[in-house]
Every structure is written in structure tokens, then in C-alpha cells.
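Running co-folding for zinc ion.
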Amino acid sequence: MTMIGTRVRGKTNRRKRRATSASRSPNSDRRWAIRKSGRVSVLQSAALSKQKWLAHGFSTRAGGASSLPAWASSRKSPAVLNLGFSDWDARASVEKNRLRFAKALGAAGMKMVPLRQFHSDLIHVIDSAPGGPLRGDALITRTPKLLLAVQTADCIPILLADPENLVVAAIHAGWRGTLKRIAEKTVGRMRMLFSSRPESIIAALGPGIGRCCYEVGPEVVKEFASQFDAARDWFDGPYDALVSGEDPNPLPWLSMVPPGHQPPEPRAQLDLHAANRAILEGAGVLAKNIDASSFCTSCRTDLFFSYRREKITGRQMAAIGIL
Ligand SMILES: [Zn+2]
């Protein structure tokens, strides 16, 4: 009951928001290009594509060797490019997909370095391929031929490049990692270890769940409000009421629910792209050097995987490496 109510509210708001976000964000499609390689298409940031010393890209859904279980009995099962190991998919298919993705980036000769992600702020700086997957949520390297890769299905993938010192980084930022300022900490590590200057760093924020669809409860709103002065700008909905703990729906008829059901928890909508953009700018990265994709993974399940929308789904990858 609660879930249905929430979904409907998200949907009514979506159309309205899409229009405003298009006029609000200056970085529309000219900052991004789709590159097709065989059956696989990758999304690339124009600013990173100009850097001829690196390969990078964000995967899209189609063109893989995997079939989602929801489609298993259908003859029209579309093949998907699932890049994360999961119960429903064969390991061999994921490995085949990863090879196709790397090839589409022009990084077939690189060693892919994925992470075992856990919504932390743990950052690994590597100069060789680790023996097994590292536990953490960001990778940094200055070593060529290592393809740093993060997996997402709604969270925000962030790729960084420092063209002066030839350093790259890949970051996985969901709400927990964003709250822990993982992007800022990654820039900090690049400064400390490689003398990177934030004003020369290029950042690309890939497809993730948009403010149109990403509903969160009062505990998330309160956490952000306590950590960031600008947090109000990143939310839609009853932000102030949720922060102060007031009931945003005080009218009694609004909380009249059928017997045996709880009234829906009040929720707000969070813009993880805006939050991470602000965090990067706070770390000294220039606004003009940040490309943020306007794709919402939950709105565009034709192009991307969305855990929120689909529950059982694949993982896309964002990857960057020095040639
Ligand atoms: Zn959306």
C-alpha cells in the first residue's frame, strides 16, 4: 500500500520536474556523446574525450550477453550488458560483457580493476592490478593500462582526470558515499599524493537516479541537513518539516488509512548529482570542468539499469584508464 502511494506521487511530479531541470542545467547533450561499438553503446563526456591520454566511458544497457530473469521465459528477451556479478547471471556472461565494454572504450588492452563496493568512503590508490577485488568505493591511479571501474544501478558514478599530472580516479557515490564526501576526499588524495590542482581537474558525473525519482525518508534528509549548509537546494518536498521532525501532512484526512495499514512515511526527493557537483566545487573543482549527465536511471530503464525501479536488474559500469 505504502509503496504504491509513493510510486504514484513520484510519477506525477516527474513530468513537471523534467521540464525545469532541462532549463536549469546548462550542460545538456552537447557535453555528452554516445559512441557505438558493435552492439554496445557507451556514453562519453566531451571534456574527458578531449584528453587523448586516457580512455573512459559509461556503459548503457543494450548489447550484452545476459538476459534478465524477468525475461527468461520470453522469446523476445533483450540481451543486456550486465557488468556486475549477480545471482541471476552467469559469470561467463558478465566477463564477456566486461570485455565488450572495455573494447568499446578503446581499452581492450587494459587490466580492468573493479571494486567490491559497500557505500563507504574508502579510497584505494593503486599502481598495479590487485590480486582480487578490493573493498572500497573509489580508485585512483597514475599507472597506465589499469582500467578503474565502478558499478552502479542508480548511484552516481564519478570519473576524475588531472591532465597536468596524468592521474585518473573512479568513484561510486550513493547517498551514503555522498554524505561521507567521497568525491571531495578523492580530490584530496589526488592533491596529497600527486600534487593535483583541483582547478585543473575534469569531472564527469554519469547517469544515476534523478531528483525526479529519488525519494528518501526523514533520516536521510536530517543527515544531509546536519552535514551540508547547502543541503536544502538538493531536495524537493517537505524539507524543513522533515528536518524539524514536524508532520508535513498534519490534516487528519491525509493520514486516514485503511485498517491494518501504516500511513505512508513522509518523504523528500534528493538530487545526488547536485550534491556531488556542489561537493566537488567545494573541493576546488571548477564548475565549467564538471560534466553531469542529465539521464535519470529510473526514468530511462530503456537505456540503463535501475535498482529502485526494477529490483532484480543488472549493473552499469563507469570506467577510466590511462592509455
Ligand atoms: Zn527520474
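Result summary
The two ends are 52 Å apart (CA to CA).
The first strand starts at residue 32 and ends at 37.
Job closed.
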